[in-house]
Amino acid sequence: MANQAAKPVKITETVLRDAHQSLIATRMTTEQMLPIVDKMDKVGYHSVECWGGATFDASLRFLKEDPWERLRKLKDGFKNTKLQMLFRGQNILGYAPYADDVVEYFVQKSIANGIDIIRIFDCVNDLRNLQTAVKASNKEKGHAQVALSYTLGDAYTLEYWRDIAKRIEDMGADSICIKDMAGLLVPSAATELVQALKDGSKLPIQLHTHYTSGVAAMTYMKAVEAGCDVIDTAMSPLAMGTSQPATEVMAKAFEGTEYDPGFDQNLLAEIADYFRPMREEWLASGLLSPKVMGVNIKTLLYQVPGGMLSNMVSQLKEMNAEDKYDEVLEEIPRVRKDFGEIPLVTPSSQIVGTQAVLNVVMGERYKMLTKESKDLLVGKYGQTTKPVNKEVQKKALDSLGMKEPITYRPADDIKPQLEQLEKDCAQYKQQDEDVLSYALFPQVATDFFKYREAQQTKVDASLADAENGVYPV
Ligand code: CO
Fold it and tell me: What is the pTM assigned to this prediction?
């Protein structure tokens, strides 16, 4: 008998994107994904996150794969399940802002090639940086999800979250996601946060967190009880640690309750069996490090994402200053405060982390400002949550020859880019989408285009050889 009060939690599976990005540097290949797609399509997921984020860069750069081709193959396989991608607002899938015409074209092509849901975020939560992508997604009939980068600090009151949820609804988004990239959201705070978002808007709420600090599964439980509609999980062989809570575990935890997603545990077990041997291989090759698999409670202490800590260690190593680790850890929250208490997520995490290292190693704070720090301080990444430190901002303005920080939407400064990009990559183009790969990563894409051509020449030659009887057929 159907339970009248049933409100099954929906689940987004991340094993094909965030899970391998978080655990094995985004190295899962399309070939490794395709054989299991059929079974995954039968689970009943709300969506499968399989594209965007770092997968685009990693495909071209390390795997020598066309990311667009991957998307089309996944779309062929997933006949019943929505495909989801992660999109960095005006930065698309890169690290710096692009012109509106590039953002619009990227959204159009992503949807045309198979994406249903676009999760769009901005590293300083400036909604103006999301406007173009949201509008483009609306136009192409995609689902535009606005993701708020979750962080802690004086500025982030429940009023802040309630107010921004309302603004997201007003701007035409289809749902809201809390993107807790560092695993900072603890269970009791999740209850309050979900309630605040629900008070602010009528949109569905999705929660995305990482297991890094060990609280994620409990946080999901509390969030769902508070009305959260969708959660992000990963199949167990690629779950936990710096990845998401395990799909099987969360489905089991809700089984028999009003939130039961109704998943078949036997089917989930078969899918896990497929990924498990890969996990063993990645462990054996060192691609999967035990370091990212445990609980790192320091992320709660320092409120720093796991990836930022490992970056920092390698920067200090390069400078022969590994003994400064603790000092830098203490400097990070101070820099973050000077920079307007922004969230720490790509690329702001790299900007704050690098500046903190410089402040400590140079022996004087802000003796040297990186180009990215200056840009952030003068408003080129958008409006920060709190005002930045005026003294430090003055330094940045002076060195850039500016009188005033910019207060308009940063991309208003960027002229249309598409026409020139088309010209620049014309000689390599084999499909419309190539110009977008080139726009984001000109050098990496060019190398890939050359590699692709060389492969095709090889195939042509061997086919000819076969026809001529050079090789046994
Ligand atoms: Co994530």
Answer: 0.93
